[in-house]
Amino acid sequence: MERKVYLSFHDIPFDDGYSYAYYPKPKLRFSKQEIKELLISIIVLSIAFSIMRVAPYYAYFYLYLPISFLAVITAFACHEIAHKYMGIRYGYWSEYRMYPQGLLFALLLSFAGFLFAAPGAVLIYGMPSREESGKISMAGPSANIIIAILFLLISKISAGIVANVAIAIALINAFLAFFNLIPIGPLDGRKIFAWNLAIWAIMIILSLALVIIAL
Fold first, then answer.
1. 93-108 burial, b if ≥16 CB within 10 A, otherwise e?
2. CB of 99 closer than 8 Å to CB of 107
3. Which of 86, 92, 97, 109 can bridge 139 by disulfide, Cβ–Cβ 3.0-4.6 Å?
4. What pLDDT score does 25 carry?
5. Cβ-based neighbours of 163, under 8 Å, separated by 6 or more
6. pTM of this prediction?
7. Using CA atoms, how far apart are residues 76 and 114, in angstroms rounded to an integer?
8. 10 Å Cβ neighbour count for 112?
9. Could you tell me if 135 and 74 are in contact, meaning their C-beta atoms sit under 8 angstroms apart?
10. Cα–Cα separations (whole angstroms), residue 198 to 11, 89, 192, 204
């Protein structure tokens, strides 16, 4: 058998009967445990947000449940799923895990008329580089910014209750993006700031501008 030596990578005849294995593209999959914890988080946050909106008239919290559910799905669930997707894209095992104490704390605080929630987070297992960590962290606030812009546009072309709901969802998403971009502690902003200062600055200015527009 004749042995061929190629002096350059570009000289290798890729179409000359050679076969090469490709890794399959990562897919967005959810475990049963993850789905259960996401649903529990969504339900608890929706109830807490509704109670906060009607405090101290707690008996009427159910009136805000539909809006609260939409807000939580778009702001919280999309944020976490965006983190998960980017983690998977880089080949890391990524799953959402709720913080039961954080959910309970959010529910209790809602009776006081305000909400500060730490419901859980997507856990990334592996050793991502600074750039990978920055991009994974950027995914969540980016999703909120895109959703905020979309619902602001919807509010401009609609009227009545549809416009009111759209502006509320836009505000919640914009505020969540802004809050998570603060470069402290475990928030997304710290990792984005450490990776790329310019991107962090653009994102936090944009999210703050969206909050002001939606107010």
1. ebbbebbeebbebbbe
2. no
3. 86
4. 54
5. 154, 155
6. 0.81
7. 17
8. 11
9. no
10. 40, 23, 9, 10
Matching residue, tokens 């730490």: 118
Q: Is 132 an active-site residue?
A: no
CA-nearest of 135, 175, 122 to 151 is 175
Residue 125 forms beta bridges with which residues? 93
Q: Which residue has the tokens 């944009």?
A: 206
Would you kindly state where each structural domain of the chain is located, as residue ranges? 26-127, 129-215
Provide φ and ψ at 186, rounded to 5°.
-85, 5
Phi, psi of 42, rounded to the nearest 5 degrees: -65, -45
Q: What is the DSSP letter of 63?
A: G
Tokens of 61: 């919290």
Contact 46, 106 (CB under 8 A): no
Radius of gyration of the CA atoms of the chain, in A: 22
CB atoms within 10 A of CB 39: 12
CA atoms within 13 A on the CB side of 79: 27
For the chain, the residue count is 215
CB of 176 within 8 A of CB of 115? no
Which is nearest to 110 in space by CA: 173, 47, 169? 47
Structure token pair of residue 71: 């807000």
- Catalytic: which of 34, 37, 80, 95? 80
Spans of the chain, pLDDT less than 70: 1-26
The residue assigned the tokens 């913080």 is: 99
Residue with tokens 């294995």: 21
